[in-house]
Amino acid sequence: MDQLEIQPSPSTNTNVIRDTVLRNQLLTRRERIRTILPPEDHEAGPNVGRLRELLREVDSALERMQAGSFGICETCHDPIENDRLLVDPLCRNCIDHLSPAEQRALERDLDLAFQVQRGLLPKPSLATHGWTLAYHYEPAGPVSGDYCDWIAGDNGDGHFFVGDVTGKGVAASMLMAQLHAIFRSLAATTPSPCQLLTKANRIFCEGTLSSYIATVVGGRVGAHGQVEISNAGHCLPMHLGARGKSATGAAIASIQSTGLPLGIFCDTEYSSQTLTLEKGDSLVLYSDGLTEAFNQSREQYGSQRLSSLLGQQAALSPHELLAVTLEDLQRFRAGAPRSDDLTIMIIRREV
Questions:
Q1: 85-90 long-range Cβ contacts below 8 angstroms, 24+ apart
Q2: Is the pLDDT higher at 227 or at 128?
Q3: What is the CATH number of domain 116-349?
Q4: What 3-state class would DSSP assign to 217?
Q5: Which residue has the higher pLDDT, 110 or 237?
Q6: Of the four, 231, 284, 288, 333, which is 20 to 30 A from 276 by CA?
Q7: Residues 327-346: what's their mean pLDDT?
Q8: Are 250 and 227 in contact, with CB atoms under 8 Å apart?
């Protein structure tokens, strides 16, 4: 009988990658602590005791990696949450077995992370140079892995972005913040969306665990209604045309994807599409927390239902259209719990 070859599971491969990255971080941290610690025979300063304790914790984490017990809760012996390990590789217990003091500290950290993330979002509403914008941003938990931004230009133009990092929780929110910083730093010198995505992908790919990817749709609007848009594997944006209405509502066209998600291949290059929004036209962008939402019967909301709703209500302002969409989603879910982050952005040309 031929020997059966057992292939490692995706979760095993992810843990190996995670531990390799964290081990390098811990080794770097250990060397830095050692360089600032005084010799043992020197008088201890006010922070030396804490530094030596931290060094012991780092050494212990490295020993657990060597022994194959890293990432295992010391109380229940189940795996510790990946999000927590990526934020704090020194943690030794899962959330269920934290002490009351540790739980309170974690709650404070999550509250602070939520406030930091809220501070990265654009203003709730925007009206500038003939464009109006409204968005809804709703984490499934304390923080979100969705990305949402608007960067105003100097000549009536502006960049918009909606994205989604794989996973949820703190680790995904950290990568969302990374995307925010990457696109903000590139937008001033790289106006073209396809070039923006190409450069951002290289940075994101080189600085992120290979188990994480991000889908992003980004674009640039001009003062005269022109829109250039590039899509890295994200949900397809919808163009709502005020003109050319059919019997079922306004004309709607999905804008196709132009490339792979960020983080898959570092050398991926992206293309873009151009269109012109007439007065009253809108562009609707969203994360899969909308179209992949489930109801009590485990049916998905779906892009077809969204398209039908938008076509009937296209004459509404962005804020009104956003409210109608959220109401319809809530009616569809009928009390079914949410399982994913939700982002919707609506941009409309007014003049």
A1: 85/18, 85/22, 86/18, 86/22, 86/170, 86/171, 86/174, 86/209, 87/170, 87/171, 87/174, 89/22, 89/25, 89/26, 89/61, 90/57, 90/58, 90/61
A2: 227
A3: 3.60.40.10
A4: strand
A5: 237
A6: 288
A7: 93
A8: no
Our measurement of the distance from residue 78's CA atom to the centroid of its chain's CA atoms, rounded to an integer in Å, reads: 27
Which residue reads 């969705």 in tokens? Answer: 146
Residue 26's pLDDT is 85
Residue 231 is inside which H or E element, if any?
A: strand 226-232
- What's CA 216's distance to the chain center, in Å? 9
Q: What is the pTM of this model?
A: 0.75
Q: Using DSSP bridges, classify how beta strands 282-286 and 342-349 pair: parallel, antiparallel or unpaired.
A: antiparallel
Q: Tell me the domain boundaries of the chain.
A: 15-98, 116-349
CA 225 centroid distance within chain? 28
Q: Report the first-to-last Cα separation within the chain, whole angstroms.
A: 75
Neighbours of 34 (CB within 10 A): 11
Percent of the chain residues topping a pLDDT of 70: 89
Q: Which two tokens stand for residue 185?
A: 């730093």
What 3-state class would DSSP assign to 320? helix
d(CA 202, CA 301): 34
- pLDDT above 80 (res 114): yes
- DSSP helix/strand/coil, 126: strand
Q: How far apart are CA 167 and CA 146, in angstroms?
A: 10
Q: What is the spatial distance between Cα 259 and Cα 284, in angstroms, rounded to a whole number?
A: 19
Closest CA to 87 of 175, 210, 215: 175
339: tokens are 């399982």
Class for domain 15-98, per CATH?
mainly alpha
Q: What is the spatial distance between Cα 204 and Cα 215, in angstroms, rounded to a whole number? A: 12
Closest CA to 25 of 81, 77, 70, 69: 70
Do 160 and 344 contact (CB within 8 A), yes or no? no
Give the whole-angstrom CA distance, residue 3 versus residue 85: 36
Q: Two tokens at 66?
A: 């060597």
